[in-house]
Amino acid sequence: MQVSNWSKSPLTDAQIRYAAQDAALSLWVLQRLYDGYAPTGVGIETWSASFAGCETRKHLVARCERLDGVTDPTMRSHMKHRLATWTREESDAKAVKAFRKASLALATHDEGLATGEYISISYFYFRTYWQCD
After folding, report:
1. Residue of 86, 43, 93, 51 lying closest to 68 (CA atoms)
2. Buried b vs exposed e over 38-48: b needs ≥16 C-beta within 10 Å?
3. How far is residue 70's CA from residue 60's CA, in Å, rounded to a whole number?
4. Helical ranges in the chain per DSSP H
5. How far is CA 54 from CA 64, 98, 124, 126, in A?
6. Around Cβ 78, how many Cβ atoms within 10 Å?
7. What DSSP state is assigned to residue 56?
8. Are the beta carbons of 50 and 63 closer than 8 angstroms?
9. Quick one: pLDDT at residue 120?
């Protein structure tokens, strides 16, 4: 939400202070992300340029899949690895979701046994998601 008129000239002292703080904070955030995620041997300029224009996870995934504009071989390898990691994490998240559904189904099943209302679909549901025999 913008509450200041940035097109009006000259800028006020408060606007100039805000802009300076915003720029400094942006650089601080970039440095922390670089320190936490960049591969060894890749400079901050190369790393940040590889993700320029990516505003969402969907954009990041697309860039990692296509590698368009990424020429540094270390960075290309890193992006392929990140994509594989994200895919594995999403798969793990789906497994957790399936486990929660199966747990709920089993709880419903157990509740049904206690009340005499046997719900056989829950056993099938559990077996389907966890591929048990």
Report:
1. 51
2. beeebeeebbe
3. 13
4. 13-37, 44-50, 57-66, 73-115, 121-130
5. 10, 30, 42, 39
6. 21
7. S
8. yes
9. 47
* Predicted structure pTM score: 0.55
Q: Is the dihedral of CA 118, 120, 121, 127 positive or negative?
A: positive
Per-residue pLDDT tens for 58-98? 888 889 999 988 999 999 999 999 899 888 888 887 877 77
DSSP 3-state of 127: helix
Q: Give the DSSP letter of residue 11.
A: P
The residue that leads in pLDDT, 5 or 99, is 5
CA angle 7, 9, 14 (to 5 degrees): 90
Tell me how far apart the alpha carbons of residues 25 and 30 are, in angstroms, rounded to a whole number.
9
CA distance linking residue 8 with residue 88, whole number of Å: 49
